[in-house]
Amino acid sequence: MFSAVYIESEVRDHPRACAILERYRDLPHIECERFGQIFNRKAQNFRMQKQYPALILARKHGRKVLSAPAGYGFEAEQSHYFSHMLNCIYDCRYCFLQGMYRSAHCVLFVNFEDFADAIRQSIVANGGGSPPPDGLLVEEVTHAGAGRQVFYSGYDCDSLALEPVSKFAEFFVPFFAKHPQATLELRTKSTQISGLLQMAPAPNCIVAMSFTTEACAKQWERDVPSIKKRLKALTRLQQAGWPVAIRFEPLLPEADQKAYASLFELVFSRLDADRLHSTSTGLFRMPADYFRNTLKLYPDEPLFARETRTENGVVSLEQPDREAWLAELEQMLFRHIDPANYYRCAN
Amino acid sequence: MNGEVNLVVAHSLEAKALIEGFDLGEVEPRGEFRCYENKQCITLVISGMGVRNAANAVGWLQERQSPGFRAWLNLGIAGHPSAALGQGLLINRIEHRRSGECFWPPIPNLGLPGCGLVTVDEPETTYEQDAAFDMEAAGFFAAAAGLTATDLVCVFKIVADNRENPVNEVNLERVPELFLQQESAIRKLVDHLRGRSAAFADWYGMPAEFESLLRGYRFSATRKAALAQYCRRFRALGRQDRLRELARVRFRDAASLMTAMRLELARANESGETSRREAQ
After folding, report:
1. Nearest CB to A45: which of B149, B237, B280?
2. pTM, whole model, 2 decimals?
3. Of B12, B39, B141, B277, which residue is least crowded by CB atoms under 10 Å?
4. 3-state secondary structure string, B118-169?
5. What ipTM does the predicted assembly reach?
6. In the predicted structure, residue B279 carries a pLDDT above the cut 80
7. Inter-chain contact A32–B93, Cβ cutoff 8 Å?
8. Tell me, what DSSP letter sits at residue A306?
9. What is the distance in angstroms between the Cα of B230 and the nearest Cα belonging to chain A?
10. What is the distance between the alpha carbons of residues A161 and B189, in angstroms, rounded to a whole number?
11. In this complex, is the C-beta atom of A130 within 8 Å of any C-beta atom belonging to chain B?
12. For strand A314-317 and strand A308-311, is the pairing parallel, antiparallel, or unpaired?
């Protein structure tokens, strides 16, 4: 999967880094002072690097919890995101990460404890209070309604794709289980769920799986588990009692309504729609500067050669009947789910 | 695979095995640097020793070549505290001792042993750092990475001296033999880089119509950039035939041509929509 491991000198002896280095003992280990020396340098080609990505182990400095963009995610009093990783091991052509970063290497910040501290402070600062006293059930606190905050972990990476290496969920799910006044969304396309299945389900930790149509997945998602495999993983999680959610993103006009109808049929024939945490859709969109960078990387990609429109600094595909198309799609969706548990992702 | 690779070596003894192995012929007339090439788009330049010479040779070679997507490979002998003589090392970090600058060459998955390297101004005799030592790589890398993507620039060194066989005892006549021992690793690396440069040419090369249209009309810098983008969109959408047809038509001026291209691309988008709707 990786061609080499770069390690910041200051995390060389971190237990999490040591375990990962041991796992990748056959790869070159290259020490650096700061991850930005490799990750942020100029004249790199993201597209070429996707063919031989390296793993960079680093320490996250500065702000670790950030406000989620407006319109991102489901309704909550406070939305935040935190990124224990930068970049993704998958290669989805529509992904904004390829326009955001200069490098396709994956940065893994190993100081999870510092992220946990920052999340704890954010919960307290936003009225979430202290963890519940022993003996009080998580659900009782969750539904008490005080200071509900959502933390998204899959904004700059896939939350679970590197789980066997990072043990991210293994660390953060128990952490959030102790902080039921907050919610964690693990956004993923991965089937790396064995760690989760070994834990007791946490009612405030949602596994949100992204799907596009079969044709779109084949054309634009490389190295990603098939829809059937993803669905199987999600079904197992739901059966085990985990809250699961569906993210139909990005919606691409490439696929006709029949393709979406088939996808919805497939998804909701496997999952218990009544027990879903939420379902959302989001059109293909990308910040204009990221789109420009992506277009430079993939000038031969038909997806980016189409007519586009830019509104408020965001590029989307030109589609004259977009609203009607989306409304029709939502009507198809509402045959399977309760509209009250649905939202459109705006960002 | 028809990608292009430029090889940079410091010394004619380092070049010898490469000239024979890749069947390179000397480029005449001789310029500032001795240069060799073959029909498989491999070019070799002998830079002379030192950081400045290496950088100058890169610049010189680039100037005499037509624009294109070329990979660059610095090959040469190096010292190392403990590695065996003749050991080949794919360099993954270059530190320029004088300036303190660091460079990070890419690491292809070729199974070649990797190593950090320090570029020094004088031959290293103490071998204090656990790294290879040379006198050119930092200059080479800085210059080559300024011309192309760093993913197309590699450094491969062959150990010619170590603590037990110090640099002042190196028998230079043995250098071609050391290169011969590493022939398969060098070929692997050259082939890999050729593949990369071919991929770049495939991804980023312009359709032929772009040049012919540029010659046929007067374009402002902005319109030239737009023309490049339109030509690429035609190709990405699989409409090269239509681009060819447009290139044969004589328009009044560049603006009229661009309007026609824009309309054609919009039509391509609409017909794509229509065909998708019809498929339903």
Report:
1. B149
2. 0.93
3. B39
4. EECCCCCCCCCCCCEEECCHHHHHHHHHCCCCHHHEEEEEEEEECCCCCHHH
5. 0.92
6. no
7. yes
8. S
9. 9
10. 31
11. no
12. antiparallel
